[in-house]
Specification:
CATH topology of the largest domain in chain A: Aldehyde Oxidoreductase, domain 4
Radius of gyration of chain B: 18 Å
Strand order of the largest sheet of chain B: 2-1-5-3-4
CATH class of the largest domain in chain B: Alpha Beta
Strand content of chain B: 5-15%
Shape of chain A: globular
Radius of gyration of chain A: 27 Å
CATH topology of the largest domain in chain B: Ubiquitin-like (UB roll)
Largest sheet of chain B: 5 strands, mixed
Number of domains of chain B: 2
Strand order of the largest sheet of chain A: 3-7-1-14-11-12-13
Distance between the termini of chain A: 40 Å
Shape of chain B: elongated
CATH superfamily of the largest domain in chain A: Aldehyde oxidase/xanthine dehydrogenase, molybdopterin binding domain
Number of helices of chain B: 9
CATH architecture of the largest domain in chain A: 2-Layer Sandwich
Distance between the termini of chain B: 39 Å
Structural class of chain B: alpha+beta
Oligomer: heterodimer
């Protein structure tokens, strides 16, 4: 594992001065009144009425519309760019290229080591920026972009990572740098482990490349006021964008304001600024007018990240009693045209999910001429799960053991892959497996599918898979400011983005729980570098476990100050006061209760400001979410069509904060997992051009309303984790999508006896496999 | 300008209705006109050149808007960038995702696939048009109650698809609902909550369980 994996989500061991000392945090709640109940979102009105302003919705009367012209070639050198004709077209105001003054900027590929140019002379992948242009309407800007004359030297390309190591394949980045260093991990002795096994299996697996395609396009509006730049960007982290933009443009961070209060989905693809962000800022500066750039849907398929295709080999040994003796995993994958770190963590589940003394993993990243990988909802995990969970299924069959039983035999209590084998604060894996199986009716239904007649062409099958997510505990830094007004209403100020996971609502519930006020009296300001406190990016399912303890601490700080004031005025010790519905109530004599607005000192001060910081994570322990999913499918053996009938998901993500949004995350994660398992493939033209040929939602199919099961049952496993943090919450959004695809693969095997090792399981592949079996091949 | 009755007779929902526009845009229009059949046989009464602005009146959420538009401007562009009705979202601009779904004469249609000039005289309803002052309409209310969204970006389109479905079919079955929103992608994957919300919205519209 590389350092960068964790630094994406955490500050790591870097000391954050504001972080309270260990032991200062309040104990988690024992009983709750608000937390855990199903509550509609505090911002639901804005989102369903159309009044929420997403970055795409920001406009000004003098706004100009920008277009980024990308290279149409998989690999090309830009000899020259001529914008003279384009600039003369109707409505066109300005164009920017690498020869424009002030546009010769260094562009850091964020995770990678490589430095490139904003407009690089060598466009190593289709869609890499060549020029930007803006006009009065997006139509005029598109016309003008088409009129830009670019002289390309088209270069040979490599688009298939499986062939990138071929000596004859063209090099993406010079002859020596085609391959990043192979990442190696080893514990125990796998050869010895395989020798001790009763059964050893080895299988090749592959998952296809997925594109995030959030519904809101990547884009921004850039507006200058003198030397001060404001950006409305659709992003998962406004402060990170602020830092990147200031860095690239050589500006003080204080003069860059990034606002992203609403955003239409990211899934990891909006953790960083795009070249469009900088191009919009440059065009706005040149024209003295606000510039709006939304990438086209096609461009988002090319340049805004992906979950890389993963070529995996897994060898596993097991004894007849279900003891895993050895796991050996090799991975070949690509993060695209620069070293993007996009393939990391694919082996994490093999290293850490099940008890196994002997493990060896080798991950090789190669470069190809295609867009860069970006973290995609539980990076690496669904791919590794596709291999590991199908392998466990195959091992269970070989030794005649129930697949659930086999997993129960190998539930870990410590993180075996981390130095020193730190224990987990809680591992609900056993409960996830047991209670999920019970709710699903696993044993009975499995018996039924085993006994189903051979006559019907429609075959039923059931399958399951388990998971952990390698982070999901959150951590410092986080600062929350809470303002309590004399009428008992509250402003909550938080830098974090709400990606649609319901973060804001959960924070309102925390305030409500702690201060006894109704959530509708809470107004939340968030995700604005000019007006809110610093927050790290919303990724890694860390936002709720990071922010909720800080919100709780801020509420407690408010309460402490309020009780001090009240104690003096009521002549009752602060420790004997309670706060409910905007009233201070002495425990001893409830008739002496007073409304907040009767407190003289509060009226004079106008408000109480509470500040909360995120406390440290427990030392030498790890906070990870776990889960197990069960599914039933029907397969039509004539056509190869697969219907997902139902799912049960037992997820252990610490305390359930809001049951309504919790269940929504579960169904959403499973729906996305169905996409990986059954419908989504980025197709590159390996033969002629190297270009992406599935760059729209017709050719790249997402699960629709017709593709989801009629029933998804969510079984939250609450382990009562008292160590994780002061709210007991762990991440949910990512673990819920990890085992889905493998569970479907296992169910399809149960139905028809064909092990599908390559995604997607659709009629195209399955009808071929069924025909091959019929023909005896 | 075409007269109203003639335009109605030559149109079907989703079809191109402005013959004046068809005759103005070159080769593509010839194909479209051939496909268009009878209406294309008649002489054009108005020719709009591609780069010229034309005056149109749009009826949106019960209000008339007089606008100067280029013939190629989509209804979506005009709604969002000229009228400030940003509830209808831009997701693909090629009729794939449904984030821009609006009602045209009560029928859900993708606003990115309609030209502003071809919906003149039709009644257009956007998500903002379902509000009663500051109060949510029944479909919006149901989406809120059942948490039928996550990021909320596809939501106005999903709401309009359900609204259109319920105007035609007040008591839809599960399958009616699934088909009703099958042209509306939700990447967050909140479909199961959308189905629940659709049933609840039907209830609310029938006057059960609260104001509708």
């Amino acid at each position: 594992m590389k350092d960068q994996d964790e630094s994406l989500y955490y500050v790591g061991d870097f000391p954050v001065p504001e972080t309270p000392e260990p032991g200062q945090e309040p104990k988690p709640w024992k009983q709750t009144r608000v937390i855990g109940k199903p509550m509609p979102r505090v911002d639901a009105y804005d989102r369903v009425s159309g009044s929420a302003v997403y970055p795409s919705d920001v406009t000004f009367s003098d706004v100009l519309y920008g277009v980024v012209l990308g290279s149409p070639h998989a690999n090309a050198r830009v000899r020259s760019v001529d914008v003279s004709a384009a600039l003369k077209m109707p409505g066109v105001h300005a164009a920017v290229t690498r020869s424009t003054k002030g546009a010769d900027l260094t562009w850091p590929y964020v995770w990678g080591k490589g430095k490139a140019k904003l407009f690089d002379a060598h466009c190593r992948y289709e869609g890499d920026a060549v020029a930007g242009i803006c006009a009065e309407t997006p139509y005029q800007a598109c016309d003008a972009a088409r009129a830009i004359k670019v002289d390309y030297e088209v270069l040979p390309f490599v688009s298939d990572e499986r062939k990138a190591l071929d000596p004859k394949a063209p090099a993406v980045d010079g002859p020596d740098k085609r391959i990043a260093e192979t990442d190696k991990y080893e514990r125990g002795d796998v050869d010895m482990g395989f020798a001790e096994a009763d059964v050893v299996l080895e299988t090749d697996y592959r998952t296809e490349c997925e594109i995030h395609t959030p519904m809101e396009l990547h884009g921004c509006v850039a507006k200058w006021d003198g030397d001060h730049l404001t950006l409305w960007e659709s992003t998962q982290g406004v402060f990170y964008i602020q830092q990147q933009v200031a860095d690239v443009l050589g500006m003080p961070q204080s003069k860059v304001r990034v606002v992203g209060r609403y955003m239409g989905g990211g899934f990891g693809s909006k953790l960083e600024a795009g070249k469009h962000t900088i191009i919009a800022a440059l065009l706005a500066k040149m024209t003295g007018r606000p510039v709006k750039i939304l990438l086209s849907r096609e461009e988002t398929f090319l340049i805004t990240g992906n979950r890389p295709a993963s070529n995996m080999k897994l060898k596993a040994g097991v004894r007849k009693d279900g003891t895993l003796t050895a796991l050996q995993f090799t991975l070949l994958a690509t993060g695209g045209a620069y070293e993007s770190g996009g393939i990391s963590l694919t082996d994490w589940l093999i290293r850490d999910l099940y008890t196994c003394p002997n493990v060896k993993c080798e991950s090789t990243e190669v470069l190809i001429n295609a867009g860069l990988a970006r973290p995609f909802r539980a990076p690496g995990h669904p791919q590794g799960s596709w291999a590991l969970e199908q392998m466990l299924d195959a091992l269970a069959e070989k030794i005649g053991m129930d697949p659930v039983e086999l997993r129960l035999k190998n539930v870990p209590t410590v993180s075996q892959a981390r130095p020193g084998n730190p224990p987990y604060t809680s591992t609900g894996l056993k409960e996830c497996l047991e209670q999920g199986a019970k709710a699903f009716g696993w044993t009975d239904v499995r018996k039924k599918t085993a006994e189903q007649g051979k006559d019907s062409p429609i075959r039923s099958g059931v399958g399951m898979g388990a998971c952990l997510w390698f982070v999901g505990g959150g951590g410092p830094p986080s600062t929350i400011v809470l303002k309590l007004f004399p009428d008992g209403s509250v402003n909550l100020n938080m830098g974090a983005s709400d990606l649609g996971t319901g973060t804001k609502t959960i924070m309102a519930m925390v305030v409500s729980e702690e201060l006894g006020i109704k959530p509708d009296k809470i107004q939340i300001e968030n995700a604005d570098t000019g007006a809110t406190q610093f927050a790290t990016r919303s990724g890694g399912s860390k936002t709720v476990p990071t922010e909720s303890p800080a919100v709780r601490a801020a509420a407690i700080d408010v309460k402490r100050q309020l009780f001090q004031i009240a104690a003096e005025e009521l002549k009752v010790p602060a420790s004997e006061l309670a706060l409910r519905n905007g009233e201070i109530i002495p425990n001893a004599d409830q008739s002496k209760k007073v409304k907040l607005n009767k407190l003289e000192a509060l009226k004079k001060r106008g408000l109480i400001i509470g500040i909360g910081y995120r406390g440290p994570n427990p030392e030498k322990k790890w906070v990870n979410p776990f889960g197990a999913q069960f599914c039933e499918v029907k397969v039509d053996t004539r056509t190869g069509e697969v219907q997902v009938v139902r799912f049960v998901a037992a997820q252990e993500s610490g305390r359930v904060m809001n049951r309504l949004t919790y269940d929504n995350q579960v169904i959403g994660g499973i729906t996305m997992g169905i996409g990986l398992a059954m419908t989504e493939v980025r197709v590159l033209d390996h033969n002629e051009t190297g270009k992406v040929v599935s760059k729209n939602w017709h050719d790249y199919k997402l699960p629709t309303a017709l593709d989801v099961p009629r029933e998804i049952v969510s079984i939250p496993i609450d382990p009562d984790d008292t160590e994780a943090n002061s709210t007991g919450a762990k991440g949910l959004g990512e673990p819920v999508t990890i085992p889905t695809a493998a569970a479907i693969g296992n169910a399809v095997y149960d139905a028809i006896g064909i092990r599908v090792t390559n995604t997607p399981i659709g009629p195209v592949q399955l009808s071929r496999l069924l025909a091959e079996r019929k023909a005896g091949r | 300008m075409d007269d109203q009755s003639d335009e109605k007779s030559s149109s079907s929902h989703g079809g191109v209705t402005r013959r004046g526009f068809l005759t103005s845009v070159g080769a593509g229009a010839v194909v479209a006109a051939t496909v268009g059949g009878a209406s294309a046989q008649k002489p054009a009464e108005e020719v709009m050149k591609p780069e010229e602005m034309g005056k149109i009146t749009l009826l949106v959420n019960g209000r008339k808007h007089r606008l100067l538009v280029e013939p190629r401007w989509s209804l979506l562009f005009v709604l969002r960038e000229k009228l400030g009705l940003t509830g209808s979202k831009v997701g693909c601009e090629r009729g794939e995702c449904g984030a821009c779904t609006v009602l045209v004469d009560d029928v859900p249609q993708y606003a990115c696939m309609l030209l502003a000039v071809e919906v003149e005289g039709r009644s257009i309803t956007t998500v903002e048009g379902l509000m009663k002052g500051e109060e949510l309409g029944p479909v919006q209310q149901a989406f809120m109650e059942h948490d039928a969204f996550q990021c909320g970006y596809c939501t106005p389109g999903q709401v309009m698809a359900i609204e259109g479905l319920l105007r035609k079919n007040p008591k839809p079955s599960d399958d009616d609902i699934r088909r009703g929103v099958s042209g509306n992608l939700c990447r967050c994957g909140a479909y199961l909550h959308i189905f629940k919300a659709a049933h609840r919205a039907a209830e609310l519209k029938r006057g059960k369980g609260g104001a509708s």
